[in-house]
Amino acid sequence: MEELLDWLQQTEGPLAYLVIGLASLVEYVFPPFPGDTVSLFAVFLAATAGYSVLWVYLSLNLGAVAGGMGAYYAGRWIGRRRVERRPRFLRSQQARKAIDTVLARFDRHGAAYLALNRFVPALRAFFFLAAGMVGMPAWKVALWGGVSACAWNGILLGVGWFLGANFEQLEAWVETYSAVAIGVVVLVSVVAVWRWRRASAAETPDAQD
Question: What are the residue ranges spanned by the domains of the chain?
Answer without folding.
Answer: 2-204
